[in-house]
Amino acid sequence: MALTITDKCVNCWACDLVCPSDAISAGAEIFVIDSIACTECEGEHADPQCAAICPIEEAILDSDGTPINPVGSLTGVPPEVRLAYEQGAYAPPNH
Question: Where is the 4Fe-4S ferredoxin-type domain (predicted)?
């Protein structure tokens, strides 16, 4: 059982500072989670603290490889609207 930090990590240090297991450290390019030390905060917190503080969507994966903060979860922008905007196909509503 362990979480994984992806290459979307921006090296902000937030996760390292809040990890109660001291399982996160700076890697060569991004932060890494020690799979042996990581407890996913079970028994200590309702949610993994690294993911709770992480400002980047899809930067931390659960043990199944699923993003804990999927696209749209932090910005409030639905994924389909974000995709349309990125593709230049989004037209904001007229008010």
Answer: 1-29
Distance CA 25, CA 5 (A): 11
Residue type, 37: A
Q: pLDDT digits over 23-59, tens only? A: 999 999 999 999 999 999 999 999 999 999 999 999 9
Q: How far is 52 from 59, CA to CA, in rounded Å?
A: 11
Query: Is CATH 3.30.70.20 what the domain over 1-90 is classified as, yes or no?
Result: yes
Do residues 53 and 18 touch, judged by C-beta distance below 8 A?
yes
What amino acid is encoded at 41 in this protein? C
- Where are the domains positioned within the chain? 1-90
Q: How far is residue 38's CA from residue 19's CA, in Å, rounded to a whole number?
A: 9
**Among 22, 25, 29, which residue's Cα sits nearest to residue 6?**
29
